[in-house]
Fold:
Amino acid sequence: MKMFLDKNKPLHTCDEKSCDHCDVKELVYCHFNMKLLFQFIIVAIPCFIIGGIGVSRFNPWLLIPWIVFFVLYFGLIEIRVMCSHCPHYAEPETKTLTCWANYGSPKLWKYRPGPMSLTEKFVFFSGLVIIIMYPSLIMTISEQFILLTVFVLYAMIAVFLMHLFMCRRCMNFACPLNSVPKDVKDKFMSHNSIVCHAWNQSEKQ
Ligand code: SF4
Ligand code: SF4
Structure:
């Protein structure tokens, strides 16, 4: 089984026969690779390691609910409310995600092109807040203020780096954190009629 989609084959949602000479090829990540996966891991994981150290220094058993929620959120909930709107999710030949974030998460839900609903956005942000606030509160209660400062600073740096290098080129325009410029979105839509149609329909409702 391939670890990533064939970079020479257009997305399932894409109308083109080839990615050669595509005008969004260098602007949107339609395909992922090991380099992009590592880039995401290097940016995201330290934050969770720092948070985990803070929790375990107070009480290692308290790591369990955090890890359980982490797996449920990034393995199931976030996939339903956010990733199921992503063109990458639509690939019929994969049963798990092969992108940079959430690599390996199962695709249990159906592909739902178009924007996220208000409820989905609420669930998406609520999950992120719980994951960040849990170690923050424990570090506050246990007066680990230096570690808490490092945690908060690193979380801010991680968000900044993701915004700079990932969210500006992510094909999931439904994500509230997506920051692909409008002209690039329009170009991508012009190649991906399934996605374009779903967004147009939602605007009419
Ligand atoms: S929009 Fe289509 S043709 Fe262009 S890079 Fe993405 S998958 Fe390939
Ligand atoms: S939204 Fe991001 S994490 Fe989810 S499937 Fe798309 S590229 Fe992967």
